[in-house]
Recover the amino acids of this structure.
Protein backbone atom coordinates (compact mmCIF):
# COMPACT_ATOMS: atom_id res chain seq x y z
CA UNK A 1 0.00 0.00 0.00
CA UNK A 2 2.85 2.30 0.94
CA UNK A 3 4.60 1.44 -2.32
CA UNK A 4 1.51 2.27 -4.37
CA UNK A 5 1.27 5.64 -2.63
CA UNK A 6 4.84 6.44 -3.55
CA UNK A 7 4.30 5.53 -7.19
CA UNK A 8 1.05 7.51 -7.29
CA UNK A 9 2.84 10.51 -5.82
CA UNK A 10 5.56 10.28 -8.46
CA UNK A 11 2.98 10.11 -11.26
CA UNK A 12 1.11 13.12 -9.88
CA UNK A 13 4.41 15.00 -9.62
CA UNK A 14 5.19 14.27 -13.29
CA UNK A 15 1.74 15.42 -14.38
CA UNK A 16 1.96 18.58 -12.29
CA UNK A 17 5.40 19.46 -13.58
CA UNK A 18 4.35 18.78 -17.17
CA UNK A 19 1.33 21.06 -16.87
CA UNK A 20 3.44 23.64 -15.10
CA UNK A 21 6.04 23.55 -17.81
CA UNK A 22 3.54 24.57 -20.44
CA UNK A 23 3.15 27.91 -18.71
CA UNK A 24 6.87 28.49 -18.26
CA UNK A 25 8.30 30.04 -21.37
CA UNK A 26 12.08 30.00 -21.74
CA UNK A 27 13.64 33.15 -20.38
CA UNK A 28 15.08 35.67 -22.83
CA UNK A 29 18.60 34.72 -21.78
CA UNK A 30 17.94 31.04 -22.54
CA UNK A 31 16.28 31.84 -25.86
CA UNK A 32 19.27 33.91 -26.95
CA UNK A 33 21.83 31.19 -26.35
CA UNK A 34 23.79 30.21 -29.44
CA UNK A 35 24.37 26.69 -30.69
CA UNK A 36 28.03 26.96 -29.76
CA UNK A 37 27.16 27.94 -26.20
CA UNK A 38 24.63 25.10 -25.84
CA UNK A 39 27.20 22.68 -27.31
CA UNK A 40 29.68 23.78 -24.65
CA UNK A 41 27.19 23.49 -21.81
CA UNK A 42 25.31 20.30 -22.62
CA UNK A 43 27.70 17.81 -24.28
CA UNK A 44 30.20 18.14 -21.45
CA UNK A 45 27.62 16.98 -18.91
CA UNK A 46 28.52 13.39 -19.84
CA UNK A 47 31.53 13.43 -22.16
CA UNK A 48 34.17 15.70 -23.68
CA UNK A 49 33.09 18.22 -26.28
CA UNK A 50 32.85 16.50 -29.66
CA UNK A 51 34.74 17.93 -32.59
CA UNK A 52 32.38 19.22 -35.33
CA UNK A 53 34.79 18.01 -38.00
CA UNK A 54 34.53 14.35 -37.00
CA UNK A 55 31.20 13.88 -38.76
CA UNK A 56 29.47 15.28 -41.83
CA UNK A 57 26.10 17.04 -41.93
CA UNK A 58 24.03 13.90 -42.49
CA UNK A 59 25.82 12.08 -39.69
CA UNK A 60 25.30 15.01 -37.33
CA UNK A 61 21.57 14.92 -38.07
CA UNK A 62 21.44 11.28 -36.97
CA UNK A 63 23.67 11.79 -33.94
CA UNK A 64 21.60 14.84 -33.00
CA UNK A 65 18.37 12.87 -32.93
CA UNK A 66 20.12 10.19 -30.87
CA UNK A 67 21.51 12.70 -28.37
CA UNK A 68 18.28 14.70 -28.15
CA UNK A 69 16.75 11.49 -26.84
CA UNK A 70 19.63 10.23 -24.69
CA UNK A 71 20.43 13.54 -23.02
CA UNK A 72 16.78 14.70 -22.94
CA UNK A 73 17.70 17.90 -24.74
CA UNK A 74 14.87 20.25 -25.59
CA UNK A 75 14.04 20.43 -29.29
CA UNK A 76 15.42 23.97 -29.48
CA UNK A 77 18.69 22.96 -27.83
CA UNK A 78 19.13 20.00 -30.18
CA UNK A 79 18.38 22.07 -33.29
CA UNK A 80 20.77 24.86 -32.33
CA UNK A 81 23.58 22.46 -31.41
CA UNK A 82 23.27 20.46 -34.63
CA UNK A 83 23.07 23.61 -36.76
CA UNK A 84 26.28 24.75 -35.08
CA UNK A 85 27.99 21.39 -35.68
CA UNK A 86 26.99 21.49 -39.35
CA UNK A 87 28.21 25.04 -39.77
CA UNK A 88 31.53 24.35 -38.05
CA UNK A 89 32.56 21.13 -39.79
CA UNK B 1 48.31 42.16 -93.68
CA UNK B 2 49.99 42.20 -90.34
CA UNK B 3 47.36 44.60 -88.97
CA UNK B 4 44.56 42.40 -90.27
CA UNK B 5 46.08 39.37 -88.53
CA UNK B 6 46.32 41.22 -85.22
CA UNK B 7 42.69 42.35 -85.47
CA UNK B 8 41.64 38.78 -86.27
CA UNK B 9 43.49 37.40 -83.23
CA UNK B 10 41.99 40.12 -81.03
CA UNK B 11 38.46 39.31 -82.22
CA UNK B 12 39.09 35.60 -81.73
CA UNK B 13 40.23 36.13 -78.14
CA UNK B 14 37.32 38.46 -77.46
CA UNK B 15 34.86 35.86 -78.72
CA UNK B 16 36.58 33.12 -76.73
CA UNK B 17 36.19 35.10 -73.51
CA UNK B 18 32.46 35.34 -74.17
CA UNK B 19 32.37 31.59 -74.81
CA UNK B 20 34.20 30.94 -71.52
CA UNK B 21 31.77 33.14 -69.60
CA UNK B 22 28.93 31.35 -71.28
CA UNK B 23 30.39 27.93 -70.38
CA UNK B 24 30.88 28.99 -66.76
CA UNK B 25 27.31 30.23 -66.62
CA UNK B 26 26.12 26.91 -68.00
CA UNK B 27 28.18 25.02 -65.42
CA UNK B 28 26.75 27.14 -62.62
CA UNK B 29 23.24 26.52 -63.89
CA UNK B 30 23.88 22.79 -64.03
CA UNK B 31 25.22 22.82 -60.46
CA UNK B 32 22.09 24.60 -59.29
CA UNK B 33 19.92 22.11 -61.14
CA UNK B 34 21.74 19.18 -59.50
CA UNK B 35 21.51 20.82 -56.08
CA UNK B 36 17.78 21.36 -56.51
CA UNK B 37 17.33 17.70 -57.46
CA UNK B 38 19.30 16.44 -54.47
CA UNK B 39 16.89 15.60 -51.64
CA UNK B 40 17.88 15.68 -48.00
CA UNK B 41 19.00 12.25 -46.85
CA UNK B 42 15.86 11.06 -45.14
CA UNK B 43 17.24 7.67 -44.31
CA UNK B 44 20.66 7.33 -42.78
CA UNK B 45 22.45 4.37 -41.23
CA UNK B 46 25.62 4.55 -39.20
CA UNK B 47 27.59 2.46 -36.77
CA UNK B 48 29.18 3.98 -33.72
CA UNK B 49 29.99 2.42 -30.38
CA UNK B 50 32.90 1.97 -28.06
CA UNK B 51 35.65 -0.44 -27.05
CA UNK B 52 38.04 -0.89 -24.18
CA UNK B 53 41.12 -3.10 -24.04
CA UNK B 54 43.83 -3.27 -21.44
CA UNK B 55 45.55 -5.05 -18.62
CA UNK B 56 44.74 -5.85 -14.99
CA UNK B 57 47.42 -6.78 -12.51
CA UNK B 58 46.85 -8.13 -8.99
CA UNK B 59 49.17 -9.88 -6.51
CA UNK B 60 48.66 -13.27 -8.14
CA UNK B 61 47.62 -12.51 -11.68
CA UNK B 62 48.48 -10.30 -14.63
CA UNK B 63 46.29 -10.46 -17.68
CA UNK B 64 45.37 -8.61 -20.83
CA UNK B 65 41.65 -8.31 -21.32
CA UNK B 66 38.90 -6.95 -23.50
CA UNK B 67 36.40 -5.35 -21.18
CA UNK B 68 34.09 -4.01 -23.85
CA UNK B 69 33.51 -3.94 -27.58
CA UNK B 70 30.05 -2.56 -28.14
CA UNK B 71 28.97 -1.53 -31.65
CA UNK B 72 26.03 0.88 -31.59
CA UNK B 73 23.73 0.96 -34.60
CA UNK B 74 21.84 4.16 -35.40
CA UNK B 75 19.28 4.23 -38.18
CA UNK B 76 17.42 7.47 -38.74
CA UNK B 77 14.35 7.74 -40.94
CA UNK B 78 13.31 11.33 -41.48
CA UNK B 79 13.49 13.76 -38.60
CA UNK B 80 11.41 11.82 -36.14
CA UNK B 81 12.10 8.07 -36.36
CA UNK B 82 15.26 6.54 -34.95
CA UNK B 83 16.29 2.96 -34.39
CA UNK B 84 19.19 2.45 -32.02
CA UNK B 85 20.81 -0.70 -30.75
CA UNK B 86 23.90 -1.67 -28.78
CA UNK B 87 25.55 -5.07 -29.06
CA UNK B 88 27.68 -6.12 -26.12
CA UNK B 89 30.59 -8.35 -27.08
CA UNK B 90 32.74 -9.95 -24.42
CA UNK B 91 35.69 -12.28 -24.53
CA UNK B 92 36.34 -13.55 -21.03
CA UNK B 93 37.38 -16.94 -19.63
CA UNK B 94 38.05 -18.13 -23.18
CA UNK B 95 34.42 -17.58 -24.05
CA UNK B 96 33.04 -15.12 -26.58
CA UNK B 97 29.58 -13.87 -25.74
CA UNK B 98 27.24 -11.58 -27.61
CA UNK B 99 24.44 -9.84 -25.77
CA UNK B 100 21.82 -7.37 -26.90
CA UNK B 101 22.34 -4.34 -24.69
CA UNK B 102 19.34 -2.50 -26.07
CA UNK B 103 17.37 -2.24 -29.31
CA UNK B 104 14.64 0.37 -29.46
CA UNK B 105 12.66 2.38 -31.95
CA UNK B 106 11.82 5.95 -31.01
CA UNK B 107 9.42 8.49 -32.47
CA UNK B 108 9.53 12.17 -31.64
CA UNK B 109 5.85 12.94 -31.16
CA UNK B 110 6.15 16.62 -30.42
CA UNK B 111 8.32 19.09 -28.54
CA UNK B 112 9.45 17.47 -25.32
CA UNK B 113 7.82 14.11 -25.96
CA UNK B 114 9.44 11.04 -27.48
CA UNK B 115 7.97 7.55 -27.35
CA UNK B 116 10.20 4.47 -27.46
CA UNK B 117 9.46 0.76 -27.77
CA UNK B 118 11.72 -2.27 -27.72
CA UNK B 119 14.46 -3.37 -25.41
CA UNK B 120 15.04 -0.10 -23.62
CA UNK B 121 18.11 1.18 -21.88
CA UNK B 122 16.42 2.14 -18.63
CA UNK B 123 17.01 5.55 -17.09
CA UNK B 124 17.22 4.26 -13.54
CA UNK B 125 19.76 6.63 -12.07
CA UNK B 126 22.19 8.23 -14.49
CA UNK B 127 25.09 5.79 -14.69
CA UNK B 128 23.37 2.89 -16.46
CA UNK B 129 21.90 4.98 -19.24
CA UNK B 130 24.34 7.81 -19.76
CA UNK B 131 27.71 7.00 -18.25
CA UNK B 132 28.30 3.30 -18.90
CA UNK B 133 30.17 3.54 -22.26
CA UNK B 134 33.85 2.94 -21.59
CA UNK B 135 34.95 6.21 -23.23
CA UNK B 136 32.43 8.15 -21.11
CA UNK B 137 33.11 6.35 -17.82
CA UNK B 138 36.15 8.01 -16.23
CA UNK B 139 37.16 4.77 -14.51
CA UNK B 140 37.97 1.37 -16.02
CA UNK B 141 34.97 -0.34 -14.40
CA UNK B 142 31.41 0.43 -13.34
CA UNK B 143 30.82 1.33 -9.69
CA UNK B 144 29.90 -1.51 -7.34
CA UNK B 145 26.35 -2.71 -7.84
CA UNK B 146 25.92 -1.04 -11.22
CA UNK B 147 27.54 -3.50 -13.60
CA UNK B 148 25.61 -5.84 -15.85
CA UNK B 149 26.84 -9.00 -14.13
CA UNK B 150 26.32 -8.18 -10.51
CA UNK B 151 23.91 -5.29 -10.65
CA UNK B 152 21.15 -4.74 -8.13
CA UNK B 153 19.44 -2.35 -10.54
CA UNK B 154 17.64 -2.67 -13.87
CA UNK B 155 19.82 -1.73 -16.84
CA UNK B 156 17.57 -2.67 -19.77
CA UNK B 157 14.23 -4.34 -20.34
CA UNK B 158 11.49 -4.87 -22.90
CA UNK B 159 8.67 -2.36 -22.86
CA UNK B 160 7.55 1.14 -23.78
CA UNK B 161 8.78 4.53 -22.59
CA UNK B 162 7.88 8.19 -22.92
CA UNK B 163 10.53 10.80 -22.24
CA UNK B 164 11.71 14.29 -23.03
CA UNK B 165 13.23 17.54 -21.89
CA UNK B 166 11.29 20.70 -21.12
CA UNK B 167 12.53 24.23 -20.49
CA UNK B 168 11.18 25.73 -17.25
CA UNK B 169 12.21 29.36 -17.40
CA UNK B 170 15.95 29.31 -16.76
CA UNK B 171 15.83 25.73 -15.49
CA UNK B 172 15.20 22.50 -17.35
CA UNK B 173 13.26 19.36 -16.50
CA UNK B 174 13.98 15.92 -17.95
CA UNK B 175 11.50 13.12 -17.45
CA UNK B 176 11.02 9.49 -18.33
CA UNK B 177 8.19 7.09 -17.58
CA UNK B 178 8.31 3.47 -18.67
CA UNK B 179 6.45 0.15 -18.43
CA UNK B 180 8.51 -3.03 -18.85
CA UNK B 181 8.38 -6.79 -18.21
CA UNK B 182 10.18 -6.39 -14.93
CA UNK B 183 12.40 -8.61 -12.81
CA UNK B 184 11.99 -12.15 -11.57
CA UNK B 185 12.76 -13.26 -8.06
CA UNK B 186 15.03 -16.23 -7.54
CA UNK B 187 13.09 -18.61 -5.32
CA UNK B 188 16.03 -20.88 -4.56
CA UNK B 189 14.96 -23.84 -6.65
CA UNK B 190 17.71 -23.20 -9.21
CA UNK B 191 20.40 -22.10 -6.77
CA UNK B 192 19.59 -21.97 -3.09
CA UNK B 193 22.33 -19.50 -2.20
CA UNK B 194 20.76 -16.89 -4.48
CA UNK B 195 17.22 -17.02 -3.07
CA UNK B 196 15.73 -13.55 -2.93
CA UNK B 197 17.87 -12.01 -5.67
CA UNK B 198 16.23 -10.26 -8.60
CA UNK B 199 17.11 -11.10 -12.20
CA UNK B 200 16.73 -8.53 -14.95
CA UNK B 201 16.22 -8.29 -18.71
CA UNK B 202 13.65 -11.07 -18.99
CA UNK B 203 12.47 -11.65 -22.54
CA UNK B 204 9.53 -13.67 -21.21
CA UNK B 205 7.49 -12.36 -18.32
CA UNK B 206 6.61 -14.77 -15.51
CA UNK B 207 3.34 -13.13 -14.52
CA UNK B 208 0.54 -10.88 -15.74
CA UNK B 209 1.70 -7.64 -14.16
CA UNK B 210 4.23 -5.14 -15.47
CA UNK B 211 6.93 -3.12 -13.78
CA UNK B 212 6.72 0.66 -13.93
CA UNK B 213 9.53 3.13 -13.44
CA UNK B 214 10.38 6.77 -13.77
CA UNK B 215 13.24 9.20 -13.59
CA UNK B 216 12.80 12.91 -13.19
CA UNK B 217 15.76 15.23 -13.16
CA UNK B 218 16.03 18.95 -12.71
CA UNK B 219 18.78 21.17 -14.06
CA UNK B 220 18.21 24.26 -11.92
CA UNK B 221 21.08 26.38 -13.24
CA UNK B 222 20.78 28.18 -16.56
CA UNK B 223 24.14 26.77 -17.74
CA UNK B 224 22.98 23.16 -17.19
CA UNK B 225 26.03 22.41 -15.03
CA UNK B 226 24.02 20.82 -12.21
CA UNK B 227 21.59 17.93 -12.58
CA UNK B 228 19.74 16.19 -9.75
CA UNK B 229 17.72 13.11 -10.65
CA UNK B 230 15.19 10.98 -8.77
CA UNK B 231 14.29 7.48 -9.92
CA UNK B 232 11.61 5.05 -8.80
CA UNK B 233 10.72 1.53 -9.94
CA UNK B 234 7.99 -0.82 -8.75
CA UNK B 235 7.47 -4.45 -9.69
CA UNK B 236 5.94 -7.73 -8.57
CA UNK B 237 8.66 -10.24 -9.47
CA UNK B 238 7.03 -13.52 -8.40
CA UNK B 239 5.41 -16.28 -10.44
CA UNK B 240 1.64 -16.68 -10.33
CA UNK B 241 2.11 -20.23 -9.08
CA UNK B 242 4.21 -21.56 -6.24
CA UNK B 243 7.53 -23.06 -7.42
CA UNK B 244 6.70 -25.95 -5.09
CA UNK B 245 3.22 -26.54 -6.52
CA UNK B 246 3.96 -30.26 -6.83
CA UNK B 247 5.55 -30.53 -3.40
CA UNK B 248 2.85 -31.00 -0.79
CA UNK B 249 5.17 -30.14 2.12
CA UNK B 250 6.25 -26.80 0.68
CA UNK B 251 3.44 -25.73 -1.61
CA UNK B 252 2.50 -22.97 0.84
CA UNK B 253 5.64 -21.10 -0.27
CA UNK B 254 4.50 -18.62 -2.87
CA UNK B 255 6.05 -15.42 -4.17
CA UNK B 256 3.26 -13.95 -6.25
CA UNK B 257 2.58 -11.21 -3.68
CA UNK B 258 6.23 -10.22 -3.26
CA UNK B 259 6.90 -6.63 -4.29
CA UNK B 260 10.09 -4.83 -5.22
CA UNK B 261 10.54 -1.09 -4.80
CA UNK B 262 13.71 0.54 -6.06
CA UNK B 263 14.76 4.13 -5.63
CA UNK B 264 17.77 6.16 -6.65
CA UNK B 265 19.01 9.69 -6.43
CA UNK B 266 21.78 10.86 -8.72
CA UNK B 267 23.80 14.04 -8.98
CA UNK B 268 26.02 15.51 -11.66
CA UNK B 269 27.99 18.72 -11.57
CA UNK B 270 30.30 19.58 -14.46
CA UNK B 271 31.77 23.04 -14.77
CA UNK B 272 34.73 24.75 -16.35
CA UNK B 273 36.23 26.90 -13.59
CA UNK B 274 38.65 29.66 -14.55
CA UNK B 275 40.26 29.85 -11.12
CA UNK B 276 41.60 26.31 -11.35
CA UNK B 277 42.06 26.42 -15.13
CA UNK B 278 40.09 23.31 -15.79
CA UNK B 279 36.94 21.24 -15.70
CA UNK B 280 35.57 19.72 -12.50
CA UNK B 281 33.32 16.71 -12.99
CA UNK B 282 31.43 15.34 -9.97
CA UNK B 283 29.12 12.34 -10.24
CA UNK B 284 27.25 10.51 -7.49
CA UNK B 285 24.38 8.05 -7.20
CA UNK B 286 22.64 6.37 -4.25
CA UNK B 287 20.46 3.30 -4.85
CA UNK B 288 18.16 1.17 -2.73
CA UNK B 289 16.40 -2.09 -3.55
CA UNK B 290 13.68 -3.22 -1.15
CA UNK B 291 11.98 -6.57 -1.74
CA UNK B 292 9.11 -7.41 0.60
CA UNK B 293 9.51 -10.20 3.13
CA UNK B 294 9.27 -13.78 1.93
CA UNK B 295 10.11 -17.22 3.27
CA UNK B 296 12.71 -19.24 1.40
CA UNK B 297 13.71 -22.87 1.52
CA UNK B 298 17.23 -24.08 2.23
CA UNK B 299 17.27 -27.88 1.75
CA UNK B 300 20.85 -28.11 3.01
CA UNK B 301 20.12 -26.42 6.32
CA UNK B 302 20.03 -29.46 8.59
CA UNK B 303 20.04 -27.42 11.78
CA UNK B 304 16.51 -26.21 11.31
CA UNK B 305 13.46 -28.37 11.52
CA UNK B 306 11.63 -26.63 8.72
CA UNK B 307 14.61 -25.78 6.51
CA UNK B 308 13.02 -22.37 6.06
CA UNK B 309 14.39 -18.91 6.67
CA UNK B 310 13.65 -15.28 5.94
CA UNK B 311 15.52 -11.99 5.97
CA UNK B 312 15.01 -8.29 5.31
CA UNK B 313 15.68 -8.24 1.57
CA UNK B 314 17.17 -4.75 1.29
CA UNK B 315 20.25 -3.81 -0.70
CA UNK B 316 21.98 -0.47 -1.01
CA UNK B 317 24.79 0.87 -3.11
CA UNK B 318 26.27 4.23 -3.83
CA UNK B 319 29.24 5.89 -5.43
CA UNK B 320 30.81 9.31 -5.47
CA UNK B 321 33.31 10.28 -8.16
CA UNK B 322 35.48 13.31 -8.79
CA UNK B 323 37.47 14.11 -11.92
CA UNK B 324 39.55 17.17 -12.70
CA UNK B 325 41.15 18.06 -16.01
CA UNK B 326 43.23 21.22 -16.39
CA UNK B 327 41.96 21.77 -19.91
CA UNK B 328 42.62 25.52 -19.84
CA UNK B 329 46.38 25.16 -19.44
CA UNK B 330 48.46 26.03 -22.48
CA UNK B 331 50.79 23.02 -22.12
CA UNK B 332 49.53 20.49 -24.68
CA UNK B 333 50.43 17.49 -22.51
CA UNK B 334 49.12 18.70 -19.18
CA UNK B 335 45.83 19.94 -20.59
CA UNK B 336 45.00 16.38 -21.67
CA UNK B 337 45.68 14.85 -18.25
CA UNK B 338 42.73 14.06 -16.01
CA UNK B 339 42.87 13.04 -12.34
CA UNK B 340 40.10 10.76 -11.10
CA UNK B 341 38.90 9.22 -7.84
CA UNK B 342 35.85 7.19 -6.85
CA UNK B 343 34.46 5.66 -3.67
CA UNK B 344 31.83 2.97 -3.98
CA UNK B 345 29.81 0.75 -1.61
CA UNK B 346 27.53 -2.24 -2.20
CA UNK B 347 25.66 -3.95 0.65
CA UNK B 348 23.46 -7.00 0.08
CA UNK B 349 20.86 -8.22 2.64
CA UNK B 350 21.98 -9.39 6.06
CA UNK B 351 20.82 -12.92 6.77
CA UNK B 352 20.63 -13.89 3.13
CA UNK B 353 22.91 -16.57 1.71
CA UNK B 354 24.40 -13.91 -0.57
CA UNK B 355 25.10 -11.39 2.18
CA UNK B 356 28.09 -9.17 1.54
CA UNK B 357 29.46 -5.75 2.35
CA UNK B 358 31.81 -4.39 -0.25
CA UNK B 359 33.65 -1.13 -0.38
CA UNK B 360 35.83 0.02 -3.21
CA UNK B 361 38.25 2.88 -3.62
CA UNK B 362 39.68 3.74 -7.03
CA UNK B 363 41.90 6.50 -8.25
CA UNK B 364 43.73 7.08 -11.47
CA UNK B 365 45.20 9.28 -14.15
CA UNK B 366 43.68 9.53 -17.61
CA UNK B 367 45.30 10.89 -20.74
CA UNK B 368 42.96 12.08 -23.49
CA UNK B 369 44.37 11.59 -27.01
CA UNK B 370 41.19 13.09 -28.45
CA UNK B 371 37.74 13.93 -27.18
CA UNK B 372 36.77 10.25 -27.39
CA UNK B 373 40.00 8.29 -26.95
CA UNK B 374 41.48 7.91 -23.49
CA UNK B 375 44.22 5.95 -21.75
CA UNK B 376 43.19 5.11 -18.17
CA UNK B 377 45.83 4.19 -15.61
CA UNK B 378 44.37 3.36 -12.23
CA UNK B 379 44.56 1.55 -8.93
CA UNK B 380 41.53 -0.10 -7.36
CA UNK B 381 41.10 -1.65 -3.93
CA UNK B 382 37.96 -3.65 -3.10
CA UNK B 383 37.20 -4.87 0.43
CA UNK B 384 34.77 -7.72 0.92
CA UNK B 385 35.13 -8.89 -2.65
CA UNK B 386 34.69 -12.57 -3.44
CA UNK B 387 38.00 -14.20 -4.26
CA UNK B 388 36.82 -14.85 -7.78
CA UNK B 389 35.58 -11.50 -9.05
CA UNK B 390 33.83 -13.18 -11.96
CA UNK B 391 31.46 -15.01 -9.60
CA UNK B 392 30.07 -11.97 -7.81
CA UNK B 393 26.52 -12.79 -8.83
CA UNK B 394 26.66 -16.12 -7.04
CA UNK B 395 28.49 -15.14 -3.91
CA UNK B 396 27.31 -16.47 -0.60
CA UNK B 397 28.12 -15.89 3.03
CA UNK B 398 30.34 -18.96 2.82
CA UNK B 399 32.44 -17.47 0.03
CA UNK B 400 35.92 -16.41 0.90
CA UNK B 401 35.88 -12.64 1.10
CA UNK B 402 39.07 -10.71 0.77
CA UNK B 403 40.66 -7.45 -0.19
CA UNK B 404 41.48 -7.35 -3.87
CA UNK B 405 43.94 -4.73 -5.08
CA UNK B 406 44.39 -4.22 -8.77
CA UNK B 407 46.47 -2.06 -11.03
CA UNK B 408 44.72 -1.31 -14.31
CA UNK B 409 45.72 0.12 -17.67
CA UNK B 410 42.98 0.46 -20.27
CA UNK B 411 42.62 2.19 -23.59
CA UNK B 412 39.04 3.20 -24.33
CA UNK B 413 37.77 4.58 -27.60
CA UNK B 414 34.43 5.99 -28.69
CA UNK B 415 33.78 4.82 -32.23
Amino acid sequence: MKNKSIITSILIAILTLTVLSQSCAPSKMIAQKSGAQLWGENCIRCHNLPSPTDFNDVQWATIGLHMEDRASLTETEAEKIIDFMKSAN
Amino acid sequence: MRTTTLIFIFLLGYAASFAQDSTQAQLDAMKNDIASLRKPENSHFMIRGFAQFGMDASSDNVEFNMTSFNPVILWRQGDKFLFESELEMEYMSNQFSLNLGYAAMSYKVTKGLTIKVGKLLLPFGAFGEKLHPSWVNRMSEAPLGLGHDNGMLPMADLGVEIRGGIQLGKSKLCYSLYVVNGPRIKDGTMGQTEAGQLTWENANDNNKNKAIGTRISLLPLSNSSLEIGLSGYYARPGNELSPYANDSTNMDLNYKDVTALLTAIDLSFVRKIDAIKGVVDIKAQYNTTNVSDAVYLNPDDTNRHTNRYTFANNSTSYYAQLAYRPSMLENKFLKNIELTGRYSIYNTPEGSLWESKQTQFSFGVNYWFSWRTVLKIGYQSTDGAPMDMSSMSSMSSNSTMSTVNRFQIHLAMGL
